[in-house]
Amino acid sequence: MSLAERSEFDLAVLALNGLRRGRTTGSCATAAVKAALNLLLLGERGATVRVSLPDGAHYLVVPIQMVDGLPDGAVRAEVLKDGGDDPDNTHGATIFAEVRRNEVREVRFFAGGGVGTATQPGLRVAVGEPAINPVPRQMMRMAVAEVLDEAMAEPHDAGFDLTIGCVNGELIARKTFNPRLGILGGISILGTSGIVEPMSLSTWIASVEVYVRVALAGGAQSVAFLPGKIGREYARDVLGLPDKRSVQIANFLGDSLDFTQKALEEEGRTLDVLWLAGHPGKLAKVLDGWWDTHSSKSNMAMAGVARVAAELGYPAALVQEMENANTVEAAMERLKSEPGAQAFWIEMERRIGALAHVRVPSVKRLEVRLFDLAGNCLGADA
Question: Of 3, 198, 291, 376, whose CA is between 20 and 30 Å from 251?
């Protein structure tokens, strides 16, 4: 869908929990790229730019803090990161883009000051690449195409080098998991929707209770809890659950289970089955007793995953590799080549489910389904 056919995503409209949404680092970097290209190719300096969002239907209006030419003929633009009411480490940071022409007729990405570089496998980008995730890259490529469409004299296969940075990003990154993930030198440019949903707040916890009660309303006997978007298609297409029976619980697994038990006790009834569906990077944290899975409240899940592998008799060298992996996704990749990988994840699902079930005795059956980042089932497939 072209930019002209899209409608504006209005950040002034509050989220369902009454909190203000924000812009991801990916949206900010894309806005900076577009502002720089507008000056480079069109000679225009706008106070705002329109950034096409990955949903294919909306655009975001993003204010531009600064745009100016550089001595080498490149253009630099800056955008102030606004994370809304979410306690985001990058809130208030200055995200910048420096855009230069190249002769290779490609859009290439580089890490500027304050944006990290991947140094270990298992991340969304290859080793040696700037820590700019796939969706933000897609958004920036779309921004390049949109400006080229306006610059009629420019060839559509013109090449540009996009250097993305963050002022004081190296300091900001110390408050994140980036150093432990093997992302060195600064923050990551993230986002899958372009919009920051304000989830990690006490007020969001209160709203989760509302969502849980809505899901249980009307005598429902099957509901699903999803830490994120992973597992949503499974709940809808395989389990056949309507949207109102699936609750996006963010990082608040323990609270969500407690809310469920409380609601069932108040109604004096039981629930036939509760599904927990998501990535083991979140759900496996309960193996070490972490029920709030936010990175600021919990450790990473690799130790728990490795411990289960050791208890199941996997070779010590493999267990050590898993424990030292920079992400659970990297540990998952290592396991794929091992016999019995599916059985391993089925056992992980069983253990997570057993621990979670203790908190909801009014649920007759609690089932866990684990998925990789692409949404593929790791353990039980039905």
Answer: 376
